[in-house]
Structures are given as structure tokens and as C-alpha cells.
Design a protein that fits this description.
The protein has 99 residues and is an alpha+beta fold. The protein contains two helices and six strands. A six-stranded antiparallel sheet has the order 1-2-6-5-4-3, with helices on one face. A hairpin with a 3-residue loop joins strand 5 and strand 6. The protein is globular.
């Protein structure tokens, strides 16, 4: 499991940020994970993937951070979702090893 933090950058934004320590994200693998888990991907570039999964809006950045937002989920649900997402990312090998 990779080192990561869950931050609340702005309480008015009703979202959190997952930041990985020195681990970029493979957006192609992340797209596959989201689609296999029943989510949808709206846009993908080399830099960012915009998606929806389990009632959350995701902005996944190749640099190693994910913005997670929802108007309908509380803080406990959001934290649970974030931890599950990180676990699934590990299963799908979405994190790139930097050497």
C-alpha cells in the first residue's frame, strides 16, 4: 500500500484531496478501474481524468493527486470511499513506481 494523505483543502468545496507521496497515477489503469467498478469517465488527457464513481465526482491527476467531491455524501462516507478507492488502485496497479 502506498503512502497517502486525505486532505480537506476547502470546507466550502465539499470535497477532499487524496495525495500520494512520490507516486504518479497511471490514468489508463485508473480509467479501467473506474469503468469496471461501474463508474463513468467524462474526459481523459495525459494530465487529468474526470470521472464519476459511487456518487462522487473525481478529478484524477497523473501527478499523484485526486480531488473527490460530492454534494450528497457526508464526511464519514467520503473518507470510507477514499480509503476503498486507494485499496482498489493498489489492486489495479494504478500507481507508478518512480525510481
Amino acid at each position: 500500500m502506498s503512502d497517502f494523505f486525505i486532505l480537506e483543502p476547502c470546507t466550502s468545496a465539499n470535497g477532499v484531496e487524496i495525495k500520494f507521496k512520490d507516486k504518479p497515477i497511471d490514468l489508463g489503469k485508473m480509467e479501467r478501474l473506474i469503468e469496471e467498478k461501474g463508474g463513468t469517465c467524462a474526459a481523459t488527457t495525459k494530465v487529468v481524468l474526470i470521472a464519476k464513481l459511487s456518487g462522487f465526482d473525481l478529478s484524477v491527476y497523473a501527478s499523484g493527486r485526486i480531488m473527490v467531491k460530492s454534494d450528497k455524501k457526508n464526511k464519514e462516507q467520503t473518507n470510507k470511499f477514499c480509503n476503498l478507492l486507494v485499496e482498489q488502485m493498489s489492486d489495479f496497479n494504478c500507481l507508478v513506481s518512480v525510481k
